[in-house]
Write a structure and sequence with these properties.
The chain is α/β, with parallel strands linked by helices. The protein has one domain (2-86): Rossmann fold. Helices cover 29% and strands 19% of the residues. Strands 2-1-3 form a three-stranded parallel β-sheet. Strand 1, helix 1 (14-25) and strand 2 (30-36) form a beta-alpha-beta unit. It is globular.
């Protein structure tokens, strides 16, 4: 199973939505995670949008990149310029 990490500046909307979509729609091929470079907490409108497509992401939380520093990923995807500039090196395996 491939592991993918989505990184956004605040891990409050885009990255959590991407994590939820991949873990729902591609569960047989991928395990997705999300993190941030500057914690902000979950963005309520993002949770609302996900519920409109019947995905419950209400238990999502902002996760700091340090949580994943020692883990390997097949893909690391930055979702904004700020995350791209502040993203540490993650080793792809």
């Amino acid at each position: 199973m491939k592991r993918v990490l989505f990184i956004c500046a605040h891990n409050s909307a885009r990255s959590q939505m991407a994590e939820g979509l991949v873990n729902h729609d591609l569960v047989d091929r991928f395990k997705a995670f999300s993190s941030e470079s500057d914690p902000a907490g979950a963005h309520p409108p993002a949770t609302e949008v996900m519920s409109e497509i019947e995905l419950d992401t209400s238990n999502g939380r902002s996760k700091d990149m340090d949580e994943f520093a020692q883990e390997g990923f097949d893909f690391v995807i930055t979702l904004c310029d700020q995350a791209n500039e502040n993203c540490p090196a993650f080793f792809i395996h």
